Structure prediction request, 937 residues.
Amino acid sequence: MAQYDINLREYWRILKKRKLVVSVFAIGLGLFSFSLTILKAPNPLYTSVCSIKFEKEATVEELFASTLTNPIETQMTVIKSYPILQRVAEGLGLLPHGAVGEDGQLKEEAIPIIEGLQSQVEVSREEYTNILNIEVTDESAVSARDLATAIGLAYKDFHAEEQMQRTSDALKYIRKQLNAVREDLRLSEEAFNRFTHENQLISLDMQSEVLLKTAQDIQNNIRELEEDRRELEGVRERLGKFIEDPSGSGHDFYSTKASQQYQGVNDTLVGLLLQKESLLEDFTPQYPEIVGIGRKIVENARKMSLLLQLEINELERKKIDFSNGLEDIEKKTSVLMDKKLEYDRLKRRVDSFNSRTAFLEAKEQEASIRKAEKPEEVTIVRQALLPTQPINPPKTVATGVMGIVIGLIVGIIVGFIVETFDTSLGAIEDVEETLGTQVLGIIPQADSKDVRESLEERYPERIEETIENQLVYLVSHFVPKSMMAESFRALRTNIQFKETEKKIKSIAVASTSPEEGKTLVTANLAITMAQAGMKVLLVGSDLRKPVVDGLFGVERSPGLTDVLMENHPWRDTVKTVTDIIMGHMGADEVMMTPGLDNLHIITSGPIPPNPAELIDSEHFTDFLEEAKEDYDRIIFDSPPILSTADAAILAAKVDGVLLVYRVGAVSRGLLRRSKAQLDRVHCDLMGVVLNGMKADVSPDFQDYKYYSYNYAYGEKEKTKKRLGRVGNAFRNWAKDGLERAAQMVASRDKTERPPEKQTRMSNRGYLVFVLLLVVVLTVGILWQSGIIEPFKSSVLETPVVRNQTEPTSKRESGKGAIESKPDVITPEMKTVVRDDVPVRDDSPQAQIKSPIMKSRSLKDQVTGVETHVIRENTLRPPIPTEQEEASSRAKADVHAEQPKFESITPLTESIMDENQAVGHETSMPPEGIPSFPYSIL
Prediction:
């Protein structure tokens, strides 16, 4: 089996499936948040802003050191300080009499007033500017404006007075500091001059340079002496080795660092060595002359070594003398550097006092000028204005949107939780993975409105409810262009492709539990196969709750039970298109879509007490083998698998089994049990047919639905027209509502009234209008989404109930008698057939035409011949055997002698009556699972 991964399409499918939960939470929380915001709207507050410009002037403190404080931040705090607000309160008359003491300090009873003003004032700075905004908030717009203006003026006056006092104090301080600095400068200059004359430091830099150069020369000489000594010691070491072994040759004892005497001895040694080498070419080393030359060579080498030692000693002595001289120079340099440091310190002190004196003199002049000019650092650049709109309007829209967003999140979480605890199978891949088999067909969830519109197009006049139900269930015949009919044709095609693997002639259509739509699938599959030209036999093998006879409007007896009880030959029980015409449907309905003449039906017959034993009998096997020889397809309407044992027995006898599963009807555990029960009888499970599939159930079906609706069937145009009408009406209504709301807002803005005396009447009207708009939008969204359909027809959801008061009768046969329940039709369910069909009926209304036939004109008939001609020439049984002709004649005689039923057999019977009659129980679907409108037991 293919493995499927969870992807975004799967998440979207779950959200669409649980759209009701998500919508309820989103709309509920949105309305709650919106209403709560309106009901708890605060009292309106107004803000007035007075802007001032602050130009900072330099202070005396800033002349000597930088500070970490920000003057703008300081002034922002000063504006909200007690002195400023005290002046404001006094100016506006907010302080009671005697609130300020004789010393100018506030009394305790005045402090709460000042603190209240502080809570109303906020000071902020405009970015990258020196402009301060004084914001005052009050419930009265006029009070906010007056208070902001008063604070700006009070701060301006306070800062001007403070600035003037600060300038006077600064001037006094500068003059005092200037006198002190001048005295220090005089003393520093005297000390500097005295030190210079005492130490004669006029050419201090030149002396330092001479000493430094001398020290460098001595260091260079010491370095050269050390190099010479190392070179001479190396030569002396080679001489020592030569003296020990003079037999060698090729020695070089020359040195440029040695004395002239050493060079002369070295030349003599070289001559002796050359002479010795010359003699050795002719004589042996023991030759007397060679021995004498060797003694001379050794003597010269020893002499050279002695000379080198003397020179090395002389170099050591010179080095010691140079080192002593270097120490004396270093001492002189140290003393000179100490004097230089003291000289620099005194000079730097004099320069410092000179610069401070010049600086203070300049600041004294600036302060004098500023005091004479009286500059203003604070300027009001924007007066406080009267506010017109409150700063705290209720955030209804934002809160409502936030509530909707939170509701969406909560709804999505709850939707996924509900989906997690849902044990039913909702997607195609889930069914395939659970059962280990493939899905052969997908029967979509039908829209009752679309089916009803299709029927109304075919039958303009209103038809009876029972007839309309029958037309709806046989959708492949009456509405062949619908999406459901196309899905049954797709199922037929898939079954034909399955036949390439194995020859399949008999098919049982079963389901796990009742009300999953197996009979719907059985009937429409048989019709589509008959429309394809196959000879199809539809067998109602559900002997406990038969419905096939009521679906096609034919008599139930004789049927399969009579065949298995050997009361009738099976060919005598076959119902053909003639029986269908003689039943509820007329010739026009039968001829509406070609192919119904290829469909033969064997109904269930009387309800037996032992259906399982009858199906497991040899008679059923013989019947099945004979039927395979006459028909291309034999389709059995099987009972539910888990309710009875009949389905498993039948599955073991047929060539293939189709398992119908209505999406969401049963849990995956029950579905596995039904699959296991089929596996135990070793039947061939062809595949699964998904019934009641919605677009929000499986992501695969979304594409299938889109394709089906646009596949040349006219559904797209009808949907566009319907949605266009609804959309135009909704847009017109919304446009009118918005225009009226705009007019209301405009008229409210034009009305002049004091801002502090607004009422709640307009807010209430606005709340009612917005709530009404939200409710209408919600209903429209739910309607368009298909969650609610107030005008939905209940045609497809109204079951046709058989009259429960059915008298029993006995039919005698050649081998015994069994009890059966003949169909009893109530007067309310009475219909008639065409007037040209010979039918016995005690009612005087027997000859009235069917409402379907009355609604059709003669030119709309399929052929222009009489009904009996159609029945004789066109709708002949497709198997013209002698036995079948005899059976048809016998059935015609029976119809002539017995009273004719006046309506179709209802689709469902009373479950309780049948259970009591046959003594068995059927499992019902779990509670709370919605029933698929087309589901037939």
